[in-house]
Write a structure and sequence with these properties.
single chain, alpha+beta, 6-stranded antiparallel β-sheet, about 25% helix
Length: about 190
């Protein structure tokens, strides 16, 4: 079954002068999930000093650790930015809040979830942020879309490629691709 985001989003291609490469996971399992994913992409596209690099396919996945079992839509985007990691985190949190997310607890349903997976090849431990995201290697719903756009990327802590991590992942929750590529136009 092929599915595409219902809206078309024009995305600016990253010029060479932007210095950081960042991978961000997007997920939603409440309300109009496609609309919330599209909303996040549009908001990222408006961010100053930032351009899109690449966008994964769209996946539907079984929730991990959530009782209500509403499936998530997931994808990963690569952006290039001159923002520092704290400024980017604050912006992502503002997108989540503006989309209607009220709960920051782990393992709950949400209208929108945005996680910084990698920020260059840096290892960062900050108040509310650990990069690389500490659960990447345990989550097929992150690894599958990440492998679409960065299969050869080497995890800076695990020292394995994303494809190798996906092959070794023991997560038994189902994850299925529902679209080859999200319907956005990159300029």
């Amino acid at each position: 079954m092929q599915s595409r985001l219902r809206c078309s989003v024009n995305v600016r291609r990253a010029p060479q002068r932007l210095k950081h490469i960042v991978y961000i996971a997007l997920g939603s399992n409440l309300g109009d999930r496609q609309m919330f994913i599209a909303y996040a992409i549009r908001r990222l596209n408006r961010l100053e000093k930032t351009r899109f690099g690449d966008v994964s396919g769209l996946y539907v996945s079984e929730p991990v650790g959530i009782a209500d079992r509403i499936p998530f839509l997931n994808m990963v985007v690569q952006i290039k930015t001159n923002l520092d990691v704290v400024s980017l985190l604050e912006y992502l949190q503002s997108i989540e809040k503006d989309a209607g997310r009220t709960n920051k607890q782990r393992y709950t349903s949400r209208v929108l979830d945005m996680d910084i997976l990698f920020f260059d090849d840096k290892i960062i431990e900050h108040e509310n942020l650990i990069i690389p995201h500490p659960e990447i290697h345990n989550r097929k719903f992150v690894l599958k879309p990440l492998a679409d756009i960065a299969g050869g990327y080497v995890h800076p802590v695990k020292k394995k490629t994303i494809r190798e991590l996906l092959d070794a992942c023991r997560d038994d929750h189902w994850v299925s691709r529902v679209g080859e590529r999200v319907s956005i136009r990159i300029q």
